[in-house]
Amino acid sequence: MPPRLRPSSLPSTSNVIPQSFSSSPLLPFLLPSYHIYTQTPTSSSRNFSTSKPAYRRVRFEKTEGTRNGFVDWMKKVGGRLNVPSPQDNVPVYLSYEPAPLPTRFPVAKGSDVCRKRDPGVSRKQAKRDAVDWTQVTDKARHSPFPTNASFKVHPVISTEFREQIYLRMKADRSVRRISAEVNCELERVAAVIRLKEIEKRWIEEKRPLCTEMQTRVHAMMPVSQYSTFPQHESITDLRIHSQTNNQLFLSVPESMPFNRKDAAEALGLLPADVRMPHSELIEVEKMKLDGVDVQTMVKVEMEREQREAEETKAKRERREKRLGAGKVVETERFRFRLKPANAAAVGHRYGVPAEDRKRGINKIPTRVL
Amino acid sequence: MSRTKLFALKHPYPRQSWNKQAVYNLYRYRMPQTSRKTFYQQKFRAKQETRRFHGEYLTERKWNSMFRHTLRGVVRMNPAIMAKDDGSSVVSGRGTGIDPKPLRMVELPKDIERRRKELKDANPQPIPFMQMTYAPLERRLDTAVYRALFASSVRQARMMCLHGKVFVNGVKMPHAGYMLNPGDMFSIDPLLVMKAIGGPERKPFKQLSTQAKSDLQKAIEEAQSKTKSSTYLKSSNKKVLAGNAAAEVDTETFTAAGVKSESTTTTTTETETEGEPTTSSSSSTDKIVTEAGGDEETSAGNKKFHLPSDWRTYLPKHPRWKIYDEWRPKRFMNLFAFIPRYLEVNHHICHAVYLRHPVARSGGAEVPNPFNDGVMQLAFNWYLRRR
């Protein structure tokens, strides 16, 4: 293919013809032949393109229905969705239906189809009556994303609830016991106590607390209040072990019983009775079934708690002893634990060089102590 | 390269942000259509849509390295049932377990209805494992900061991390990609959090009358000119008044109220040169008012100041103290005001604890997103393909 001339390099009317000629009817004949077939002079370098040149084009084109639609939405719907302080702790989450009325003629709350409406009741009113509003509000209260029914909001514990947990800790109760009493996960109880201790320290130091923000944030979401027997969440959630996802074929004698313990053994795991958090509750339930009186149950429980406390104490002491064996030198980056070393051993390495400058090794720390 | 227009209205993407345009986009968002598309197309589209929501600032390679095909789930155990039964009834009979309430040969329709209801109660809802596809991202520090309602978008949370505002277990953690471990406590300065998730900032002097404004200006000038006897300015505050750009802006706003700026600048230079720590830091409002008024007698002639009772909070340094009591939430915060169960947050002190990794349980997963199970399953399959 022959090299193409770029249109911009060709002479155009503006630089070939003097200005006085431009309106002449003889213009086509005055021009060189290739100019007859070209367009009338444009400022574009691309003569065959009908669209505007890049520098003439608006950077972000204004189209109807996008920005205007947004402005309209902000006026009509936006105000309704923005509720900075909802009443009675009823959260306002995103609802896709501007007017959640059924399009078809409604089915009454019972199974009977109501085709006739009472005289004096408008069609709209009849439709509105037919909606189970308690169900609708309940659904809206717990699902912030209406398109995803699988994500439901779980209430958070109120500030009073936290205070109660902290008070129980101050009354020398174990985390495990508090967790069972207030029906919160073990980790949550421990975390609440940690946070509460920092809060108390701040109050001592007279640092300001964001009480206003806390109350207003809690007003916007479902909150579980403290009561005598609070029911916050399930405390006996058993983690599904990945080992149990695979099928296992095992021949078992028909005459022999096969229970949870046997199944765990076959999979090479601990039985669920042990792995479950708050496994001591099973023992309590067993005692209940056996008809043990309350006094004995309390006594047994106290003994178990004491035993556990002693065990954890011994464990901690052992750990401290192990860690505090040598001299500890704290630097900004490292905590050196100096131990007496045997330098005479053959092939012994004194240390391992840091590898964080090597290619492909992640510099982001994996844990912070 | 990541998209620069995050909240475009023409081609809307769902984003994790409280931005008004993001809310509008989420409001009108519809799930991708699967009809008349090949399986590959469906998977690709689902992956596109979900990735636009989950960590869109991460490269695909980075996310691929984080993806895990093992998904965490949890089953609720009932200790009462476990005490009664050792599990042998599940495999007894012919190996499929014994039905405690077998169906009778002839059943009344009413019984069948009741039976159906019982079965429904007994069989819990399925565990939405597919919703856990993007669970590894929830471990990231920036995402956790956003989930704890300390930032109004994941990008803002990321910026906080990168600027060194986020502390993990009391240690500054400038890596947004730090993977939180169960039990990690992270914290941010409460003032920063209140600014990030709070409404528009309070305009100082907005509510004050012209008279009060001019009086306030005179009081400040008085304090600046008298280095020794000014009772309320600490040395730190003085420095702020003298050199801070914000303070100068504020004095300019005062000049609009009718006071010359030249005098202010001269006084500031004076304070800079003579800057010495003042003796008394205790200050009650009436004391200053009377004192300043007494000095004013010489120039203006026995004129009292009309200052508001909380006038100290109007000083350039001090409006921050008012934020604690006058905090208002950012627009549309209520639509996203929920804290997932794997976090325990204390907004009093802006600390939060990452309790455990997010899990799926019967009827619900802990990863917040607007996509239904079908879309998430397709996205999961897309990433599974390369394993």
Description:
The complex is a heterodimer of chains A (369) and B (387). Chain A has 369 residues and is mainly α. Among the domains of chain A are: 65 residues, no CATH class; 69 residues; 48 residues. Chain A is 40% helix and 4% strand. Chain A is built from 14 helices and five strands. Chain A has a two-stranded parallel sheet with strand order 1-2. In chain A, strands 4-5 form a two-stranded antiparallel sheet. In chain A, a hairpin with a 4-residue loop joins strand 4 and strand 5. In chain A, helix 8 packs across helix 9. Chain A is extended, with a radius of gyration of 38 Å. About 13% of the residues of chain A have low confidence. Chain B is mainly alpha-helical and 387 residues long. Chain B has a domain of 143 residues: RNA-binding S4 domain (Structural Genomics Hypothetical 15.5 Kd Protein In mrcA-pckA Intergenic Region, Chain A, Roll). Chain B has 16 helices and eight strands. In chain B, strands 3-2-4-6-5 form a five-stranded antiparallel β-sheet, covered by helices on one side. A two-stranded antiparallel sheet of chain B has the order 7-8. In chain B, strand 2 and strand 3 form a beta hairpin. In chain B, helix 2 crosses helix 16, helix 7 packs across helix 8 and helix 11 packs across helix 13. Chain B starts with 19 loop residues before the first helix and ends with a helix. Classes of the chains: A mainly alpha (369), B mainly alpha (387). Chains A and B meet through helix 4, helix 9, helix 10, strand 3 and helix 11 of A and helix 1, strand 1, helix 4, helix 9 and helix 15 of B.
